[in-house]
Amino acid sequence: MLTVDTFGLADPAPFLAFTRDAFARIRAQGVTSLVIDVSKNGGGDDVVWLDGLMPYLATQPYRTGSTYRGLARAPAGAPAKPMQGEIATWRQPQPDNPLCFAGKTYVRIGPGTYSSAILFANVMHDFGFATLVGAGGAARRSQSGGIRDVALPHTGLTLTLPRFILDPPSGSAPRSLLEGDAPGPAN
């Protein structure tokens, strides 16, 4: 089991070194079944899982979502403009990576799986890289991101609002909750 409790790291370099070492040990020990536990992962920066996990797990081109919609940044005092479109960036697998894991992969989700961890779970599920296991039903598969702060003029309170909604790679699922595919392997 590989437990990843956050993707929110100020410096991803130690995580990248950790995952490289972990996948080297997985290879050396001949592991054939891997559980990646993100059941308590509240998210963070996508680059952490994109660079730290996907080079060892992806077997085909993938993208982090299908479509997006939201508001573009605007100068202070100007209204934000609506934006929407398709996610056109496809990432390539690294089939020549000697540490690429070829066994069965499971991603354990739970009520604490959120934000970037849901994007990771969506990619693993929608592209067939893993079977989702664990307790789902706590968060939607579509995720918000790109936050912006808005100060309320009369109270001084600050609201933190997402700038966009990202639909999962398989397509729009606005009412769909992240769910496990199977009960999962024993610990």
Describe the 3D structure.
GO terms for molecular function: serine-type peptidase activity. InterPro entries: ClpP/crotonase-like_dom_sf (IPR029045), Tail-specific_protease (IPR005151). With 187 residues, the protein is α/β, with parallel strands linked by helices. The chain has a domain of 124 residues: 2-enoyl-CoA Hydratase, Chain A, domain 1. The protein has four helices and ten strands. The protein has a four-stranded parallel sheet, covered by helices on one side. It has a four-stranded antiparallel sheet with strand order 4-3-10-7, covered by helices on one side. Strands 8-9 form a two-stranded antiparallel sheet. A hairpin with a 6-residue loop joins strand 8 and strand 9. The longest helix is centred in the N-terminal third of the chain and has 16 residues. The radius of gyration is 18 Å and the shape is elongated. 32% of the residues are buried.
What is the overall number of helices? 4
Mean pLDDT equals 91
CATH superfamily of the domain at 2-65 and 88-141 and 173-178: 2-enoyl-CoA Hydratase, Chain A, domain 1
**Side-by-side strand order of the widest sheet:** 1-2-5-6
Distance linking N and C termini: 8 Å
Overall, the morphology is: elongated
Secondary-structure element series:
EHEHHEEEHEEEEE
> What structural class results from the helix and strand content?
alpha/beta
Q: What share of residues is helical?
A: 10-25%
- Overall CATH architecture of the domain at 2-65 and 88-141 and 173-178: Alpha-Beta Complex
Uncertain runs: none
In the CATH scheme, the class of the domain at 2-65 and 88-141 and 173-178 would be Alpha Beta
Give the amount of beta strand, in percent.
15-25%
CATH topology of the domain at 2-65 and 88-141 and 173-178: 2-enoyl-CoA Hydratase, Chain A, domain 1
User: The biggest beta sheet, please?
Assistant: 4 strands, parallel
Q: Number of DSSP strands?
A: 10
Pfam families: Peptidase_S41 (PF03572)
Protein name: Peptidase S41 family protein
GO molecular function: serine-type peptidase activity
